Amino acid sequence: MPTTDLDMLLPHTQVQMPGLQRAQFGADEFIPARLLTTRLTRSYNVQELLGLYQQRGATFNKVHISAFWTTLGKHARRNPKQLRFLQGQLVYNATLFGRARAQTLQMLPELGEREVVNVAHGAPRRQGRQGRQGRN
């Protein structure tokens, strides 16, 4: 199987499915929707998650876009190194985030309440001067 630059940058994830080995899918191969959701939510880090978006973002449904933003926020909140990496990517990889943002806005009419809340909760945002300390 040929490797791409992205393959070399991103670690491969393990999707835990009892009795089954992790299926390998090429960038152009079909991935069942539930498996793609699992790969998004179980991504190891921001880099892997962005790689999944880069490879599969065009095929995302409302569950996938919700899982993408929720998992992105989770990685950033749980690990300061991931937050710094994400902050750098927001600057250096603005095109990818522009596509994700535009896709999310385009899908907004079909998103349910749960997906909208998940997107809003997970999406990177700027904190005001007071940051979290200013909240009651």
Structure description:
With 136 residues, this protein is mostly helical. The protein is built from 7 helices and no strands. The protein has helices at 5-9, 33-41, 46-56, 62-78, 80-92, 94-107, 113-122. Helix 2 runs parallel beside helix 4 (62-78) and helix 4 packs parallel to helix 7 (113-122). The longest helix is centred in the middle third of the chain and has 17 residues, at 62-78. It is globular, with a radius of gyration of 16 Å. Residues 1-23 and 127-136 have low confidence and may be disordered.
Helix count, per DSSP?
7
What's the mean pLDDT score?
76
Low-confidence stretches: 1-23, 127-136
Topology pattern, helix = H, strand = E = HHHHHHH
Measured between the Cα atoms of the first and last residue, the distance is 53 Å
Which range does the strand content fall in? under 5%
The class by helix and strand makeup works out as mainly alpha
Identify the notable features of this structure and list them briefly.
disordered N terminus; globular; disordered C terminus; mainly alpha; about 0% strand; about 140 residues
